[in-house]
Amino acid sequence: MGLFDLFTDKKKVIGFSLENVHAEHQKNPRHFLIPSQEEINQLKLGDQVRLIFVLDTVLRMGVEQSVCGSNSLKSAMGSSKDV
After folding, report:
1. Is 12 left (phi over 0), alpha (psi -120 to 50) or beta?
2. What is the mean predicted confidence (pLDDT) over 13-30?
3. Residue 49 to residues 33, 34, 70, 78: CA-CA distances in angstroms?
4. Which one of 67, 68, 70, 77 is least enclosed by Cβ atoms within 10 Å?
5. pLDDT at 80 over 60
6. pTM as predicted
7. Tens digits of per-residue pLDDT, 49-78?
8. 3-state SS string for the chain
9. Does residue 83 register a pLDDT over 50?
10. How far apart are CA 32 and CA 25, in angstroms?
11. Is-contact 15 54, C-beta < 8 A?
12. CA separation for the pair 72, 8 (Å, rounded)
């Protein structure tokens, strides 16, 4: 199972919210830049914006290794979900 399978599998539910960028900007204004209110007000349909998703579920990525012969090693990346 890959990372994106967790989002497309109808049996699993992953909750999320959007990052509060104003709060993050207040904490660290030099390193967490956001557009001015004037720039935000000028957005129109079709403009691209960046959204930061915060998952309510912990996703763990790992590498599984197994021996496939006398001198070969097989590796596979995968993910698991902790609720």
Report:
1. beta
2. 89
3. 13, 11, 52, 30
4. 70
5. no
6. 0.49
7. 999 988 887 666 665 555 555 555 554 555
8. CCCCHHHHCCCCCCCEEECCHHHHHHHCCCCCCCCCHHHHHCCCCCCCCCCCEEECCEEEEEEEEEECCCCCEEEEEEEEEEC
9. no
10. 5
11. no
12. 34
Reading the block at residue 62, the tokens are 């790992």
Angle at 65 between CA 58 and CA 80, to 5 degrees: 15
Largest CA distance in the chain: 65
How confident is the model at residue 62, as a pLDDT?
61
Q: Which amino acid is at 46?
A: G
d(CA 6, CA 11): 9
What per-residue confidence (pLDDT) applies to 58?
A: 67
Tokens of 37: 């209110």
Q: Compute the distance between CA of residue 35 and CA of residue 21 in angstroms, rounded to an integer.
A: 10
